[in-house]
From TrEMBL:
Keywords: Methyltransferase, S-adenosyl-L-methionine, Transferase. It comes from Circinella minor. It is an enzyme of class 2 (transferase). This is Leucine carboxyl methyltransferase 1. One of its GO terms (molecular function) is protein C-terminal leucine carboxyl O-methyltransferase activity. The lineage of its organism: Eukaryota, Fungi, Fungi incertae sedis, Mucoromycota, Mucoromycotina. It holds the Pfam family LCM. Its EC number is 2.1.1.233. The keyword Iron does not apply.
Length: 319
């Protein structure tokens, strides 16, 4: 019972993430015509949260785009772990990402409870539904499959069962594969997240990983962050195992990845974003709480890793 309610709380973090994304979209930080369909009651978030959502989206999309741009002999696949109500697939299919013809399959995994809700929204909204070819419902109504989009219901802690579903839908371990984990692995015990990362290096010939999650739990801001989450019964099980950027990098290297890099949101803001983008954001909303922004941004990291022949030099940094 306790585990179930804990999982329920973790599933709830998806609604939070979606509301935050919509808030940033509605204020003009970035475009996503699909996220609105997954939010019942929009809430305007603070400027700090909105800027954070923008940078998170910017950095991850930047890395995803590099993967899509790689010249590979085989068609590619993407698998998003704990995808929640992620809309990337729909943005790609609607043409926002340009030519995605090198992408053959897009898999999303989340708890069945989340997957069912997502599938229902997709079926109800023509704008989403019409982007998917040959939709079929599988696994007793839980999963949604199609020509290239696969929504899988399962528990990441039972990885071998997820693997069976992936294989069932034609997951190809020799295809260049991008794995996306956006605020997900942090909710798992390290033994479970490591099992997944280890499986990838063992089973896939050409793979890349893109991760976003909280870091630095022990400084004073980090302690407040953890306490606030705990008061909502949210536990970041992985954060003490990978508290610093170096830990985020070595977690991959130790498990056999060829290269890994981690940066915090401050670095992305200060070194990777265009100055024009920063002034554009300043015109969207005034951000007075600069100090708080720096503190918050120091507690989120983007990490990426690769194990492959094709990606080696190309996938080395956010550009
Ligand atoms: N990746 C999405 C995003 O960034 O908007 C959702 C992030 S949300 C904070 C975390 C997601 O991970 C939730 O949808 C939750 O259900 C999923 N998740 C966490 N633990 C999981 C597990 N053991 N098995 C499957 N999904 C899990």
């Amino acid at each position: 019972h306790d585990n179930t309610s804990q999982d329920e709380v973790i599933r709830g973090t998806n609604d939070d993430a979606t509301v935050s994304r919509l808030s940033a979209v509605n204020l003009g930080y970035f475009k996503d015509p699909f996220v609105q369909f997954f939010v019942k009651r929009p809430i305007r978030r603070s400027p700090i949260i909105n800027r954070g959502s923008y940078i998170r989206n910017y950095a991850l999309d930047n890395l995803v785009r590099q993967f899509l741009n790689l010249d590979t002999p085989k068609k590619k696949q993407i698998i998003s772990l704990g995808a929640g109500f992620d809309t990337r697939y729909f943005l790609m299919k609607s043409g926002q990402w340009g030519d995605c013809s090198q992408l053959s399959k897009y898999f999303e995994v989340d708890f069945p409870e989340v997957v069912v809700k997502k599938a229902m929204t997709i079926k109800r909204r023509a704008q989403l539904y019409e982007l998917i070819q040959n939709v079929r419902i599988e696994k007793g109504g839980i999963e949604l499959a199609s020509d290239d989009y696969f929504l899988l219901g399962g528990d990441l802690r039972e990885w071998s069962e997820i693997v069976q579903r992936l294989v069932h839908y034609g997951f190809d371990s020799t295809a260049p594969t991008l794995v996306i984990s956006e605020c997900v692995l942090i909710y798992l015990e390290p033994e479970h997240s490591n099992m997944i990362l280890n499986w990838m290096t063992q089973e896939l010939t050409d793979c890349m990983f893109v991760l976003y999650e909280q870091i630095r739990p022990t400084d004073s801001f980090g302690k407040v962050m953890i306490r606030n989450l705990q008061s909502r019964r949210i536990e970041l099980k992985g954060i003490h195992a990978y508290p610093e950027l170096e830990d985020q990098e070595t977690r991959f290297i130790r498990l056999g990845w060829d290269g890994a890099k981690a940066v915090d949101t401050n670095t992305i803001h200060d070194q990777y974003l265009d100055r024009s983008d920063i002034s554009r954001m300043a015109r969207l909303e005034i951000l007075d709480e600069l100090e708080e922004w720096h503190l918050l941004a120091g507690h989120y990291c983007v990490a990426w890793a690769y194990k492959s022949i094709t990606a080696k030099d190309k996938f080395a940094s956010i550009q």
